[in-house]
Amino acid sequence: MYKSPTNSKFSLTFFKSKLGLTLAFIMLLLSGQISIAQENIPPQYDAFRKNTFHGGLGFGGLIVTATLNYERMVTQHLDKKVSATFVKVGFGTYGSIDGSGQYLIPQYGFLTGSKANHLEVSVGPNFTLNGDLNLPVSANVGYRRQKPGKPFLIRTGVALPEAIYFGMGLSF
């Protein structure tokens, strides 16, 4: 009959000792942490979600604005300086000492950056629906915080006719 060269009493007593139990517990914890860390590694470049609704409030001296926008991503190249281009249509209202009114702003723009922080630039015509807002163009230069692939975004910047604005939105 064949006898194993290892002593089975030694292996049982090793795991019954405090050192053996401690090492076994640490190995069990480390194996769980390694597998969790490997599951949570995101892809190098997630894409932006294609559609976004965002709103904002703007303040500029004696004028206050509120704008709602629908935005659609046109192109995405997260490995380049201009990471995405988009078109958007916004409907807004303004109020000042002189009066109030509504405007419609279709714009074309781009985002820079491949992670969460982006420069946002857009430009387009300004259509005053009623009121006396005599701006022929609408333009925007701002900061956007949005992780590619995530739904939530925050925007702030300077725009015509929105003035100095702060906004939030959701992508889907």
UniProtKB/TrEMBL annotation:
What is the protein name stated in its UniProt record? Outer membrane protein with beta-barrel domain
Superkingdom of this entry's organism?
A: Bacteria
Q: Which keywords label this protein?
A: Membrane, Transmembrane, Transmembrane helix
Q: Kindly list the residue ranges recorded as spanning the membrane.
A: 53-70
